[in-house]
Design brief:
There is one protein chain. By secondary structure, this protein is an all-alpha fold. It has a domain at 2-73. The protein is built from three helices and no strands. Helix 1 packs parallel to helix 3 (53-102). The longest helix has 50 residues, at 53-102. It is rod-shaped and about 75 Å long.
Length: 103
């Protein structure tokens, strides 16, 4: 069980780092760290896992925390995507106005 729990713990740590980076608007670093986090998450395998009774509680606690962090990160991602879409729309509008004046 140790290996899977170790991967989940690392994914939780990276998720918390991503939340901090998002608050600091460090999006390039955020993107790099997200790639690392996704690789960890893809390596979580719970198939054929033999657990002690106490391990079930630890695993459930860790997975619940990871799910909560994922939800927060998804919300931040959607918010940031909307901000960027609005900025692009503003640029396009300004470009059309500039083109109209240049004709």
């Amino acid at each position: 069980m140790g290996y899977s729990l170790e991967i989940i713990t690392k994914a939780i740590k990276k998720s918390k780092q991503l939340l901090t980076l998002s608050k600091e608007s460090k999006w390039e670093t955020f993107a790099d760290l997200e790639v690392e986090r996704q690789a960890l998450i893809k390596n979580i395998s719970l198939e054929n896992l033999v657990l002690l009774e106490s391990d079930y509680n630890d695993l459930q606690t860790q997975m619940n925390e990871l799910i909560l962090l994922n939800s927060k990160l998804e919300s931040i991602g959607l918010k940031q995507r909307n901000i960027i879409a609005d900025e692009l729309q503003g640029f396009r509008k300004n470009n059309k106005v500039a083109q109209a004046y240049s004709q």
